[in-house]
Amino acid sequence: MFDKMMVAIDQAEITNKLLDAAVEIAQKKKTQVTLVHVSQEYVSNGMTYVPENFLEDILNEMEKAGLEQLQQAESKLKSAGINPETVHLKGDPAHEILNYARDTEQQLIIIGSRGLRGIKEMMLGSVSHKVSQLSHCPVLIMH
């Protein structure tokens, strides 16, 4: 059913669930798996007392952590006999995931949910919600 599947890696605590689902789906039908992580490109500095280089350092650390997550996820899938492609993107996570999925003709997106509800979801937004609403292909949201 799915020849190409994308797994959006973000939070360490849910990554194992995402990878378990990907393995189960991919092993049944030799599906091509792409692991994707999106790093923020910038952080708006609304606090004038925070040095700009401090924010850049934070972004660099976040990017490094994201690349490590991708590497660990790749290792886990390889140990299950799946040879995934890994992709690191920068920008708004929902838009980057959607654009990459469309451009590479993905047939399924697997993504995690932080479980935000109510005011928090309204204020912070939800990447998984945006992706599920705007995707051209099915989206599996793992909690």
Automatic annotation (TrEMBL):
Matching Gene3D superfamilies: HUPs
Pfam assignment, any one: Usp
Every UspA domain range: 1-142
CDD domains reported in the protein's UniProt record: USP-like (cd00293)
Name of the protein this chain belongs to: Nucleotide-binding universal stress UspA family protein
Superkingdom of origin organism: Bacteria
InterPro entries: Rossmann-like_a/b/a_fold, Universal_stress_UspA, UspA
UniProt similarity note: Belongs to the universal stress protein A family.
